[in-house]
Here is the input.
Amino acid sequence: MEAVKTQDVGVNDLPWKIEYHAERCTMCGSCVAGCTFKAIKVEVQKKSMTHSEGSVPTPVHTHIAIPIIKQVASLTDFCRGCGMCEKVCPNNAIHPVRNPDSRKTLLSRDAGPIKRGGRTNLNAQRTLDSIIVGRISQMTDPSLDSARHTFDIRSPFGRVLSSKELPFEVVDGKLVQKGKTPPVHFIYPLIFSDMSIGALSTRAWEAVALAVGYLNEKCNIPIRMSSGEGGMPGNLLKSDYLKYFIIQIASGHFGWNRIIKAIPHMVTDPAGILIKIGQGAKPGDGGLLPSAKVAEHIQAIRGVPKATLSSPPNHQGLYSIEESVQKMHLSMNAAFGFRVPVAIKCAASSTSVSVYNNLLRDPYKICGGFFIDGIQGGTGAANEVSLDHTGHPVVSKIRDCYLAAVNQGLQGQIPLYGGGGIGMTGNAAADAFKMMCLGANGVFVGKILIQLLGCVGNEQGRCNACNTGKCPTGICTQDPRLVKRLDIDKGAQKIVDYVLAFDSELKKLMAPIGNSSLPIGRSDALVTTDKAISDKLGIQYAC
Amino acid sequence: MLKIETMKDNERMSTQDLLLKIEDAVKNGETEFDIAASGQHDIGGPLWNAEGKKLFFHVTNAGQRVGSMCLPGTEIVVDESASADVGWLNSGGVITVRGDAGDTAGHCSSGGKIFIGGRAGTRTGSLMKHDPLYEEPELWVLKNVGSFSFEFMGGGKAVVCGEDAEEFASVLGERACVGMVGGVVYVRGKIGSYPKNIACSELDENDINFLSGGMGEFLEKIGRTELREKLSRWQEWRKLQPAQQNAAGKTDDVKSFHQKEWVKGGIFADVAKDDFEVHNTISTGLYRLRVPTWENAKYAAPCEFSCPTGIPTEQRYALLRAGKDEEAFQLELDYTPFPGSVCGSVCPNPCMEGCTRGTIDEPIQIGELGFKSSFLPVKPPSVKTGKKISVIGGGVAGLSAAWQLARKGHDVTVYDEDEHIGGKLEQVIPRGRLSHELLKAELKRIESVGVKFVSSYKVDKEKFASIRETSDAVIVATGGTKSRFFPWEGKEHLTMGLQYLKAINRGEKPKTGKRVVVIGAGNSGMDTCRGAYEMGAQTVIAVDVQKPAAFQHEIDYIESLGGKIVWPFFTQKITPEGIYGNDGRFIPADQVIVSIGEEPVLDFLPDDENIQKFRGSWLVPNKDKSVTSKVFAAGDVIKPGRLTDAIGDGRRTAWYVDLFVMGKSIEPFPEKQKIPAERIGKAYFDKCHHCNLGDAADDKVRCVSCGTCRDCKMCLESCPEKAISRIEKADGSWEYVSDPNRCIGCGMCAGVCPCGVWSIDDNPEEIKMYTTGEKVAG
Here is the structure.
């Protein structure tokens, strides 16, 4: 007789159920030893039965106790579906199975709102997958050969002046620059974005940075990486590789003490500055770094004690669009002698076009880019209500902003970068291509980078435990025991290989439409089988 | 020889007319053609002689695709230059162009030979391929070719001789061999860019044999035999062909960049010490996620925890399993002087209610086990401390404290106003529930360790002061001696339950009615009912305002005698005829006895502000059980409780009194946490039939041994890494240890331990990986 109450939590209340095959299990202990969430345990189960032997009823009683692996029925130590148990099991005896009957989210608010990492799990539907590159050069004009043709795959990062505004004059028959121009770098249209030191482990952050170094130095791919809001590694600030990195400043201003102190020691300028106003995963909410991840170096770099770090939803000194545009851009431009482009990142919103219009009107020409982050962006920690229920799809927002600029004849002057879910279904090149056809100058990615490093999380509720400090892959944790699981070189190589393939794939899409330069605004290249998308984005409807 | 002029009187023959004319002639057996073309396309194929004779075409001024789709047996000679697509899809013809060829020469040729005596245009050799059923195609070019040559080449041999091509940066143009997957391109002269997956290498013997074998025919066809020697300096030649795929080498790319070119020591070297070693998902030692700990007897078994006296029965059974029966029975006496009178007789045995075994089948028979220590003698203390301790009150609390303190070597005197020491055990508990002989034996045993009993000694203020003066410590343990009741109407008709029971035990046969009502249905109420029946009552009814608090077996006993319990019943008034409830109910009775508990009488204590009381009656001691200087309290003077509560409280008070008189620092009375039920492995134990319970001592097999190692070796045998060893000590005790260098922290030991001795917890050892960094000047 078991003493179980109906309101006791059972494994069927949890999002993942452990499927365990006792007959295959050797009790090697690997699954339990490797599970960072304590979601499984060793337990002894009894088999007590009376059977009959012989030709007449002759009760024979047997009782054996067998050790097994059992799922823990707990709302705190619950299985996240990461599958490390399955990975380490030598006999395929155990694996998690998604439980459609889970009551976990309903029951888990005893300690307040649910927090987790990852992406929205509720609004993971994709506009980009309903869009096809449908304008293929056939008899009309020759398509290009993606392998042979020379493609110009560069996007501006920085404020681009119209030709009339360029300060040139002719002196003695020669073209001479007579005034200053804003700094503009031509970079790869794929930016590694905004995962902070703190959200990521030192190894994970360094692996992404290493891939950036390699792609620039060895592959002629001028890819840039944004630091995220947790400061910059000290040795990177003093290194020549700094030129490949965009330093972010967010509302918490974390890490800027050490960045400023390093300025006199810098041997080169950073690639840019990115002012983060908001992010797509949790728009209107500030950054969040749970105490479990605030290790000693994070405390030092950020200048805080071990505590859960919530960044304010706004920059404390900014009270209007004008101030954001002027005050913040001016300060950041000034910090590096007006040599470094300064861009701004906002969560996609119904108001994005207003923001972009304000930036375009800036008379000082100091805004070097507008980054729009959609609802499908990832995060290391957020309230689930923000992840799942707030935000804005990025695709139409990029389109709206681009067309707003076109209507004023200002397109291309403040580069538009879109992110949030780029590469979510696997092909970032296709996503990037479509975003560019709709008006983006480039895209930024974060989640797929850690997925390439080994992150097993996804938007179907797998893992998403980035906020716990127990990341099984050593990526989103500061626990040395877990960090040491991550192979920097292997991870960086994976990113490098992906980007090299991205480059080829981008060409595979540019070639058929006959573009040898990036197809910014070439919405004629896209068709959709969804009439609503066709109407909203102004692209051809096909069926 | 059929000679065809395609221009007559400024009239040009169309390609269609020319090709149909040739086709007709071939069908008619013509094999040799001399065609003066005017740019007509596709001259040369696919054509064949029905008898298999060779076809020969001499062509001038050919248009595009001369020699296209040629079949074996066809030879075409073009004297001067030809336009684009020479030999397009050539499937076996020998095609010679003595001058230059246009773009895409040899495109998709899969057989035969194409000889170009000059240069060839862009995309020459594109998509050449080789069907293994036939000879592979050859394409020979004397000078050089345009850009994008040999794209997507899949087979065949191409030869670019580099003659008269010094002015070109590359004899293959730019970006040759893109997409090339098969075949080989021989080149003499400068080579420009080609993809990474194409290998450029020296010629080997086979290559030279091929080239020297074919060179003669080529030069002869194009009429340049004088170049033979110049073009045969093989060291000037190279070949391009698809490289062997080397996937393994690729993974090292980033790694070697990391090692050789990246920021030295890593970008986080200032704040994170990292050797960059990559650990397996499962680690041992320092890097285990969790570590096991053998925590023998850290937790109290449920029996120990539920016993207010705190008797560790699981330890007694551990000793019994080890064959140390005597020690096991003596262990009981370390906790109580009344194993027989209380544990084995009147105690409701809350220990058994908590027993884990009771959740499997039947609880361990702990009361009966206690009884086995009833008549066991103990050794008096070997060393006397000389400290004098007085205990006021000879009930179980006082005697428990006296027992503990005397065994520690203190001089203990117990004062009691009654004629007999023993408190409620002696005075109140019906003899039917407790053998008087047993009680007397256990009281004797208390005296045997040196406790002095002073009975019939009523302590008043003066005497108390004197006792306090002459003692190192005084323990007040006079218990509850005054029956409590409420100011009901007719309260003067009440009989006081405590006095009534005391009189019975003194053998006085107190006055008892025929119909008795007892107010209060707790355990003492049931004792009162039992007493009334023994004194001759015919019906006894107990009333209570709430569900009876007495133990079920006490209620059952009274009911078996014909008694009844009525509740809820709120007494309103008592008359000589009976008792009225506030709801108008009337129960006729000759006698109403009140038995709703007692309160202490503490008039002997000094008027001392330090002495705190609850509701003016009960003492509120400090944490160390003291109530004022040198004066301590124990038992029902603090709070009404069961006998076992009083024994436990006496033991607790004795702990603090000992520390006090010995001048030691005050350590809290040792208490263990109850072992969490989920730590215990009940699955090992098969359910027994309730009829099959044996002797209490034999329950050593049934006892689960919660929290205390039963030395079963399950952990040792189950550990997948064989990390656990059993270490036996000189005194016969043992210890299990897990070797950190083997242990992976899987928790198998904790999972299989039946007793819940092993814990598996987060690895507590800190790894000092991160720092704040070092201050840099400036």
In short: Chain B is about 25% helix and 20% strand. The two ends of chain B are 97 Å apart (CA to CA). The longest helix of chain B spans residues 643-661.
